[in-house]
């Protein structure tokens, strides 16, 4: 086999391949065998029909077509490997010549990973938020914990903000009660804004047994978006009672004996969270600066596919789960279709550039991924997917996605390497040290990479 490579642009090549006919022998034999199993000829047992009879009855052309279809992937792969190319996606193959007994010639156009020059990135400098935990932050955290241990009790008084009311609802449009417009025994916290517009004002001041009517735009159901007259009947009013913020509460809500110990632990936990957020912010900002430094030719077909994939996932998965379509989503976001498409393309370009650049650094810096690192990443991905680690691992293996996970961790480590070489300062001008061997730093970097890449996997 002979092959030659023609560079069409920095991200696309054309392979010209010539194959001597004798190299098609294995595929020709396989073609005769396959056709033998599919056809019957009177006088011959199935599978025992001679090649000359198949040629006479079904045509030599059908055999050649079957053989070429079988052989093309192998010869294409050999040509790719010989030229040391990194293809992206499927090739466009064109058979130029097929002479029986002599020659097979074909061309294959395919996008390839561009060759990148990674400049010195040690001069990158970014500024991130300072890590500062105030007394107000700690108290807010304790109040949130206290809220989780709140109890409710029925009260014989008018409902007020913060109370939980149990209500029956009936919605009418144009004077007719909707089939799906009746609900009974609905619990609602006044002031939460989680039900219908106008309900807070309607139920505030009502005691158990009280009734009110209000007008509201329906947020779902058969009359979504229409104005409805809603009748609400309050059946019970409950007040929320918060536990006292004292040592007894600390023992109830934590492993600590005193409120001061719980308060100190809350401060430490908030500091860890803010440090992780600071590290993630550093990764994102350094990545943005790194992308500016590297010139990345963009494979147009890959970009088009990535934009379509992101749009499909948004429309058919994310928005579907929220009960929205694209038009409604754009209305909520206040964007035109043109603005949305431009934003989607920009995000897709950033995802592709991120992967190309960091993969180049992985190779340049000889970044490796250990089993422990892969396991830790798998556990985190499983948690975010809502699956158990065993279920997620099985899905990854069955889907052949292990190399994808390895790539995610490797790119995270590559970004952590760049961040360590860069200068990161907080708002006060103090230099922040982010060790690329630190587990939390690598995890923050991996999350930053995933956020930038979106669905990209080239």
Structure write-up:
There is one protein chain. It contains 14 helices and eleven strands. With 458 residues, the protein is an alpha+beta fold. 21% of the residues are buried. The model has no long low-confidence stretch (mean pLDDT 90).
Tell me the layout of helices and strands.
Layout: E1 2-9, E2 12-20, H1 25-38, H2 51-58, H3 60-83, E3 87-99, E4 103-112, E5 125-128, H4 135-148, E6 151-154, E7 164-173, E8 176-189, H5 199-203, E9 211-217, E10 227-241, H6 247-253, H7 259-293, H8 300-321, H9 326-333, H10 337-364, H11 371-385, H12 389-398, H13 402-421, E11 423-426, H14 439-453
Parallel strand pairs: 5-11
Antiparallel strand pairs: 1-2, 2-4, 3-4, 6-10, 7-8, 7-10, 9-10
Rg (CA only): 32 Å
> Which oligomerization state do the chains in this entry correspond to?
single chain
The proportion of residues forming helix, as a percent range, comes to: 40-55%
Q: What is the SS-derived class? A: alpha+beta
Strand/helix succession:
EEHHHEEEHEEEHEEHHHHHHHHEH
Pfam families: FKBP_C, Trigger_C, Trigger_N
Subcellular location: Cytoplasm
Catalytic activity: [protein]-peptidylproline (omega=180) = [protein]-peptidylproline (omega=0)
Domain PPIase FKBP-type: 162-209
